[in-house]
Specification:
CATH topology of the largest domain: TIM Barrel
CATH superfamily of the largest domain: Alanine racemase
Number of helices: 10
Radius of gyration: 22 Å
CATH class of the largest domain: Alpha Beta
Shape: elongated
Bound molecules: pyridoxal-5'-phosphate
Number of strands: 21
Helix content: 25-40%
Length: 414
């Protein structure tokens, strides 16, 4: 299985945001998610240190829990939303924050809500541009529009590729300048380019190469348009190490390379601001899913720990959210004592489907009913990306720990 993030240390029983798993389980019942904002703060501090002068945006689909949007929103320069629902959360939790709205298939009411809110709409197609201009006309408000470009390259090593092919995302690079000409002629406020080439890449050299290519493409498109874009959103795609053998990205190397690319940027971008948008890199490692063992069961020589949670809360850990091969997320017996003997077990959820396997034949300290299992890397694409209506179990609590003004390790039930 993958390595437990260093932030959690190696003490046993395992402390999570300053408390034991048993304390969390007693106060909130299991299963539950705990998000430690100290870990988010450390990630954002590290990003700021290597990306000076570059705006940081939080892509809230990674974890749209309102308390998380409020907390992370306070540490960044902008929020990226991908639906009218996310837009409403962003406006509720962080009024006044810069918002950009990407994603295909925006409905007219979503375009209108974005225009009313003063958000930047990242246009995904020429047709959407026409509809956004019409929406602005209806409202009597000048829309803020950026063009999302489908680049001719993709982010190497990326788990989800979003460029270099036919795509529902973004306007093909060859067509993009024409769309900008159209929206400028119509009197809209052109906010610049959005170029997002992929997600979850652990390939540092690939990220560096993609960022350089992105800046070059933005410069070339801007020259064709004959205007300076106020903002270029360079996308993100910074990955986190989920699995055995994964290694984290080299953030200082990425920051250094981007600084030199921007230091020598072509004239059309001389007065442009740059932004990077991230979801999982900011919040993925801060979250732990805690679930209690209900049964310990032997079958044909294998041992199963049957827990009270499962893929209906943490689909990604079961290998059913965008992965081809099932590999194990880092898991631990959070209630294990130091020096406990270990065994090979599978951790399975309580759903009546063989897909519901949180860890497949892993080595863990011997555990039984009442023990609490921690599934790490649960801060991004966890509950909101899982089918929690499936099988009718209750929705788990999500706790945001170490919020500003709280005493360390105090909790806040949302
Ligand atoms: C999902 C998404 C992100 C966030 O991706 P992560 O892998 O979580 O960093 C950023 N930008 C856009 C346009 C997205 O759709």
């Amino acid at each position: 299985m993958g390595a437990i993030p260093d932030d959690f240390g190696s003490a046993q029983p395992l402390p999570i945001a300053g408390r034991s798993a048993e304390e969390w389980a007693m106060t909130h019942d299991t299963p539950l998610f705990v998000y430690d904002l100290d870990i988010v703060r450390a990630r954002i501090t590290a990003l700021r240190a290597v990306l000076p002068g570059i705006d940081l945006h939080y892509a809230i689909k990674a974890n749209p829990l309102p308390a998380m949007v409020a907390a992370v929103g306070s540490m960044v320069d902008g929020l990226d939303v991908a639906s009218g629902g996310e837009l409403a959360v962003a406006l509720d939790m962080k009024p006044g924050q810069a918002i950009s709205f990407a994603g295909p298939g925006k409905k007219d009411w979503e375009l209108e809500a974005a225009i009313r809110a003063g958000a930047t709409i990242n246009l995904e197609s020429p047709g959407e541009c026409v509809r956004a201009l019409a929406a602005g006309e209806r409202l009597g408000i000048t829309p803020r529009l950026a063009v999302r470009v489908n680049p001719d390259f993709e982010l190497r090593g990326s788990g989800m590729k979003m460029g270099g092919r036919a795509s529902p995302f973004g306007i093909d690079a060859a067509e993009a300048p024409g769309v900008v000409a159209m929206l400028r002629a119509a009197g809209a406020d052109w906010r610049g380019w959005h170029i997002f080439a992929g997600s979850q890449s652990l390939d540092t050299a690939g990220i560096i190469e993609t960022q350089a290519a992105t800046v070059a493409l933005a410069a070339q498109l801007s020259a064709t348009v004959g205007a300076t874009p106020p903002l270029v959103n360079l996308g993100g795609g910074f990955g986190i190490p989920y699995f055995s053998g994964d290694r984290g990205i080299d953030l200082p190397a990425i920051g250094g390379a981007l600084a030199s690319v921007l230091g020598e940027r072509p004239e059309p971008l001389a007065n442009t601001r740059f932004a990077i948008e991230l979801g999982r890199y900011m919040v993925g490692e801060c979250g732990v899913y805690l679930t209690r063992v209900i049964e310990r069961k032997e079958s044909r020589g294998e041992t199963f720990l049957v827990v009270d949670g499962g893929m209906h809360h943490q689909l990604a850990a079961s290998g059913n959210f965008g992965t081809v091969i099932k590999r194990n997320y880092p898991v631990a017996v959070a209630t294990a004592r130091a020096g406990a003997p270990s065994e090979t077990v599978s951790v399975v959820g309580c759903l009546c489907t063989p897909l519901d396997r949180l860890a497949d034949r892993v080595t863990l300290p011997i555990a039984g009913p009442g023990d609490v299992i921690a599934v790490f890397m649960a801060g991004a694409y966890g509950l909101s990306a899982s089918p929690h209506g499936f099988l009718g179990h209750p929705v788990p609590a999500e706790v945001v720990a170490n919020q500003p003004g709280q005493t360390p390790s105090a909790s806040f039930l949302t």
